[in-house]
Write a sequence for this structure.
């Protein structure tokens, strides 16, 4: 059997005594949509931050695409093909919607300093490929009409769509979505669902944190449930939903 | 508010006409400025122009590192001083060609900025400001105390002038060099900000976490901006040294860095056109207005207060507002 796209093994993160993630391990296969659920404070976003390289783990390993990426920094992991959206959206406030998405579509791996300052030889300040990727991402999220607007003028739901489009525009192999459905209207939810289906059919894997249970059940192949930093259940969406440990985590013990 | 829809997505690829207009504006500006030494005969007026160009190089590069890259750097005067002192000392004491002094001086400034920058760009906000401020003071003290190298209070005098085909470049003949300095600085920064690297600089300022998740090396981008601004300040220093042909410690005092910072703020942080206006205003005001010259610090303070209260985005902000009034909506 071929290696999964992403695999976490014995992953732990301690913040000065507080164990945020405790010995968590799971895989995400190529082309799979995997949900990460759990009550607030379960450690889901910390797992995201660990995968994306925003913070280093205290213990454990992360392998991506056949390579140990545990020690890599955030931008290196991004360049390998891991894109993420943020729970708090985190757009580039001074930019228009299209520029927000374009920045993520651009290749920041190679420095072309000379051409950047001289603009000689038919230089294009925005590469066609990046512009097309950015446009596609915005269209996929149903946000093409917002392109010229400043992000501060958008509703919260629209900002979230743009945040997701920005992650898509990088053309990732693994997409980490942190609460992509929060604050979306019914129509916006439909765009998101459509986008997830399209992205997955293009072979991209998705790991998503989401509180909207119905949404998780409708888009995810598999669900991992966490509570108090530990993995408490894993499996097909319906099975996890029925799992006593999961029900207990959400509703408390009787 | 800009209209949504297909029309506004022209921003994705700048229209050809905008590019042509921009080029025409640059060429027109250069042509007009080249006429100045032909029309203006008084050496003093040439000095004002050269000083103005040097100061614009400094404020534009300061605006770049503070406004675009979001790093509070007050070490600008130190880099300016190093860029002036190093080639001046080399040519005066060791007979190195002033032309060759330029790359050497800038290389030294770049090296120093990298060395300092690697630890310093990890600092944010106030910490970075305090650290670079301290660096400025240190340089000031060094220049005053290291008498053997810098000449202390006496400074470096009798610097040999730049020569072109055996003719020394002085006064009006030096004017094109200063003009080239400011034009190249402006072009370089304007081009840079319209490139993926420029977008990465803004993204890093706006949200470092998201920038890094988009594949941008945040520390690298910050270091680059810090070093580039230092190199531009150093270049301005070279132009200064070989125009005045004499230097002393007063050129790199920290209060000069503050004055440049005020010019940037009065002009409008992050708005290069406004910064140029602010610089022109504060450089020319003491020359044209007697009362301003007598109490310069007072008037700069009052102006700064007025800008902070009534036009927090500076001259540039006022300019933008005026543009919006006269242009159809949706153009950005």
């Amino acid at each position: 059997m071929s290696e999964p796209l992403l695999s976490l093994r014995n992953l732990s993160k301690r913040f000065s005594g507080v164990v945020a993630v405790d010995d968590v391990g799971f895989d995400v296969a190529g082309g799979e949509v995997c949900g990460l659920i759990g009550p607030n404070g379960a450690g889901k976003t910390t797992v995201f931050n660990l995968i994306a390289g925003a913070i280093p783990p205290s213990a454990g390993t992360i392998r991506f695409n056949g390579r140990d990426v545990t020690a890599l920094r955030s931008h290196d992991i991004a360049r390998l093909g891991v894109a993420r959206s943020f729970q708090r959206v985190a757009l580039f406030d001074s930019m228009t919607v299209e520029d927000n998405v374009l920045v993520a579509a651009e290749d920041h791996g190679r420095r072309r300093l000379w051409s950047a300052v001289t603009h000689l030889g038919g230089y294009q300040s925005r590469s066609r490929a990046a512009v097309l990727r950015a446009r596609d991402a915005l269209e996929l999220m149903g946000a093409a009409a917002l392109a010229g607007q400043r992000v501060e003028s958008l509703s919260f739901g629209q900002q979230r769509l743009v945040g997701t489009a920005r992650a898509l525009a990088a053309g990732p192999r693994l997409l980490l979505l942190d609460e992509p459905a929060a604050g979306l209207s019914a129509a916006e939810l439909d765009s998101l669902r459509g986008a997830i289906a399209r992205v997955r059919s293009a072979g991209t894997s998705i790991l998503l944190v989401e509180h909207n249970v119905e949404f998780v059940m409708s888009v995810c192949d598999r669900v991992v449930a966490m509570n108090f930093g530990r993995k408490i259940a894993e499996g097909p969406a319906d099975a996890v939903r029925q799992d006593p440990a999961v029900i207990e985590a959400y509703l408390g013990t009787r | 508010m800009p209209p949504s829809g297909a029309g506004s997505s022209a921003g994705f690829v700048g229209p050809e006409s905008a590019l042509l207009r921009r080029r025409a504006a640059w060429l027109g500006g250069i042509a007009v400025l080249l006429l100045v030494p032909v029309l203006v005969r008084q050496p003093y007026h040439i000095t004002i122009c050269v000083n103005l160009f040097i100061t614009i190089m400094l404020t534009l590069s300061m605006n770049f590192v503070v406004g675009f890259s979001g790093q509070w750097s007050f070490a600008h005067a130190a880099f300016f001083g190093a860029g002036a002192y190093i080639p001046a000392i080399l040519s005066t004491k060791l007979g190195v060609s002033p032309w060759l002094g330029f790359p050497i001086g800038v290389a030294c400034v770049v090296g120093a900025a990298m060395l300092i920058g690697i630890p310093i760009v990890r600092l944010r906000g106030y910490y970075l400001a305090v650290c670079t401020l301290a660096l400025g003071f240190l340089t000031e003290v060094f220049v005053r105390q290291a008498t053997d190298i810098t000449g202390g209070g006496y400074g470096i005098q009798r610097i040999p002038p730049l020569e072109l085909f055996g003719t020394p470049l002085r006064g009006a003949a030096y004017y094109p060099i200063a003009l080239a300095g400011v034009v190249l600085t402006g072009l370089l920064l304007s081009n840079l900000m319209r490139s993926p690297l420029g977008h990465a600089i803004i993204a890093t300022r706006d949200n470092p976490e998201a920038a890094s998740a988009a594949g941008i090396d945040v520390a690298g981008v910050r270091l680059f901006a810090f070093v580039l601004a230092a190199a531009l300040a150093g270049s301005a220093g070279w132009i200064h040294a070989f125009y005045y042909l004499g230097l002393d410690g007063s050129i790199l005092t920290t209060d000069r860095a503050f004055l440049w910072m005020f010019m940037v703020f009065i002009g409008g942080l992050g708005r290069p056109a406004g910064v140029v206006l602010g610089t022109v205003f504060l450089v020319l005001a003491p020359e044209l207005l007697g009362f301003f010259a007598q109490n310069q610090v007072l008037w700069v303070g009052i102006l700064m207060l007025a800008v902070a209260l009534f036009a927090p985005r500076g001259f540039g902000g006022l300019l933008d507002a005026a543009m919006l009034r006269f242009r159809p909506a949706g153009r950005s």
